[in-house]
């Protein structure tokens, strides 16, 4: 019934958060695309990891310091069909009423589009449930159009029996679906606000390249393709762009909404980029392209018995970005990555922004444990030709992708 609908599922601190994985699983079973967000207190009762596995989408646990237009929660909030908060604590009800959006659940609730329905399942002890402040907050939210899954009488965390218990997981999902049907009938207008990169065609490169030495050996690098895959997925799914991904050898998966072209060598990547370029508004070169290739790869496997000592003759590959620059149209935006380490990293990245004539460059460091190749996290600095320098603290590559794409969406 929720087929392909994007649902945000918020979980706050209550013993009932232990039911969250079952609720998430049942929501997924209805066909919905489910994105979970958890407060810090919720994580004492359930883990983001299990929710990520059950939904196939990384659970959100942090607000990263990116304020103003174009931040991730706006894109996710606006593109959602509805949001469920279950369990919802008394504190969250109070904050929702007072507009205090200081955790990912509240932030997403504040970012929903006009037609997205917010549905809340409160859970707390009976004394708290009966507090006039709690009841007033619920009434106020109800008047603003929020719908409620009422708590039931039963065993409470305190050991007492009383009012305030969240219904069982399958009942929560059933009521959520029923309330949504009513909301959709009362408000049949689809969300019309366009996604930030809707209508834009984005070409992204990712992964390493492999340059053959003979039929079994190659020169490669440690790039995993995670950053390119995250950029492609987020650009298509959250930002609404038409995405073509030219991917070097990588085991990273990409959603079917991304048009993926697999390549192996720097030359193959260059040919694909140049043939695709004219149909795209934006190019993001996140691939770690090999700078050298074997000048004369052997046709047959090189046998160790044939060579006692062996030196390999290398020739430079062509710089794809350089070729792009001489082929691009004035309006096309070109974004590069700079892989640097050591003290001169910033200087080199800025140098590449200028010398390659890019609109934006993302500095990626290879000399940090938790950033760069193969890790799921990254610590980047973004430079634009207008002089912006934005430091992004250690976040997941998905979050990096969202920050980069938000800045691209704001470029004109
Ligand atoms: N790049 C490219 N073609 C190449 C090599 C790199 O288009 N043959 C692109 C990368 O995709 C990246 C940017 O150029 O967007 C910078 O890549 P990087 O490896 O950091 O720098 P290089 O230009 O290769 O210079 P160096 O290796 O000397 O630092």
Global mean pLDDT: 91
CATH class of the largest domain: Alpha Beta
Could you give the distance between the termini? 40 Å
Fraction of residues in H or I helices: 25-40%
Verbal overview:
The protein has 13 helices and 21 strands. The strands form six sheets. It has an eight-stranded mixed β-sheet with strand order 12-11-8-13-16-17-19-20, sandwiched between helices. Strands 2-1-3-4-5 form a five-stranded parallel β-sheet, with helices on both faces. Strands 6-7 form a two-stranded antiparallel sheet. Helices cover 32% and strands 23% of the residues. The protein has 412 residues and is α/β, with parallel strands linked by helices. It is elongated, with a radius of gyration of 25 Å. It folds into two domains: 6-186, Flavin prenyltransferase-like (Rossmann fold); 201-292 and 314-409, Rossmann fold (3-Layer(aba) Sandwich), CATH 3.40.50. Helix 3 packs across helix 5 (104-110) and helix 4 crosses helix 7. It binds cytidine-5'-triphosphate (CTP). Residues 266, 285, 287, 289, 291, 317, 319-321, 336-339, 352 line the site of cytidine-5'-triphosphate.
In a nutshell, what does this entry contain?
The chain is of the alpha/beta class and 412 residues long. The protein is built from 13 helices and 21 strands.
Set out the fold topology.
Layout: E1 6-11, H1 20-29, E2 33-38, H2 48-55, H3 72-79, E3 82-88, H4 90-98, H5 104-110, E4 117-122, H6 126-129, H7 132-143, E5 147-148, E6 152-155, E7 161-165, H8 169-186, E8 201-206, E9 211-212, E10 218-219, H9 226-237, E11 242-247, E12 258-262, H10 266-276, E13 282-285, E14 292-294, E15 314-316, H11 320-327, E16 333-340, H12 345-355, E17 360-365, E18 377-378, E19 380-384, E20 389-391, E21 395-396, H13 397-410
Parallel strand pairs: 1-2, 1-3, 3-4, 4-5, 8-11, 8-13, 11-12, 13-16, 16-17
Antiparallel strand pairs: 6-7, 9-10, 14-15, 17-19, 18-21, 19-20
Helix pairs in contact: 1-2, 1-8, 3-5, 4-7, 9-13, 10-11
The structure holds cytidine-5'-triphosphate (CTP).
Cytidine-5'-triphosphate binds at residues 266, 285, 287, 289, 291, 317, 319-321, 336-339, 352.
């Amino acid at each position: 019934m929720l087929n392909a609908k994007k649902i945000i599922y918020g979980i706050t601190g209550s013993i009932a958060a232990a039911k969250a994985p079952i609720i998430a699983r049942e929501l997924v079973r209805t066909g919905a695309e489910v994105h979970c967000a958890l407060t810090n207190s919720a994580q004492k009762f359930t883990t983001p990891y299990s929710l990520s596995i059950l939904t196939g989408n990384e659970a959100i646990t942090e607000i990263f310091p990116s304020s103003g237009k174009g931040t991730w929660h706006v894109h996710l909030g606006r593109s959602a069909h509805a949001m469920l908060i279950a369990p919802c604590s008394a504190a969250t009800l109070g904050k929702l009423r007072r507009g205090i959006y200081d955790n990912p659940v509240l932030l997403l609730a504040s970012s929903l589009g006009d037609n997205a329905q917010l549905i809340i399942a409160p859970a707390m002890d009976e004394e708290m449930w009966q507090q006039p402040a709690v009841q007033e907050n619920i009434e106020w939210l109800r008047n603003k159009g929020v719908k409620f899954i009422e708590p039931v009488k039963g065993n409470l965390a305190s050991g007492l029996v009383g009012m305030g218990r969240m219904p069982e997981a399958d009942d929560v999902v059933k009521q959520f679906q029923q309330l949504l049907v009513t909301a959709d009938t009362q408000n049949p207008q689809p969300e019309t606000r366009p996604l930030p990169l809707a209508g834009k065609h984005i070409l992204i490169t990712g992964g390493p390249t492999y340059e053959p030495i003979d039929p079994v050996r190659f020169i490669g690098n440690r790039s995993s393709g995670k950053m390119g895959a995250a950029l492609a997925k987020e650009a298509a799914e959250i930002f609404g762009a038409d995405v073509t991904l030219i991917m070097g050898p990588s085991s990273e998966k990409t959603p079917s909404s991304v048009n993926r072209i697999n390549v192996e060598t720097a030359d193959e990547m260059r040919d694909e980029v140049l043939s695709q370029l004219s149909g795209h508004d934006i190019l993001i070169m996140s691939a770690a392209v090999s700078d050298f290739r074997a000048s004369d790869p052997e046709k047959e496997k090189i046998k160790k018995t044939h060579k006692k000592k062996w030196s390999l003759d290398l020739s430079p590959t062509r710089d794809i970005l350089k070729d792009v620059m001489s082929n691009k149209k004035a309006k096309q935006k070109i974004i590069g990555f700079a892989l640097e380490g050591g003290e001169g990293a910033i200087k080199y990245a800025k140098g590449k922004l200028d010398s390659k004539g890019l609109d934006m460059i993302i500095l990626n460091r290879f000399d940090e444990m938790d950033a760069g190749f193969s890790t799921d996290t990254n610590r980047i600095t973004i430079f634009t030709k207008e002089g912006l320098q934005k430091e992004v603290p250690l976040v997941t590559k998905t979050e990096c992708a969202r920050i980069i794409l938000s800045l691209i969406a704001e470029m004109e």
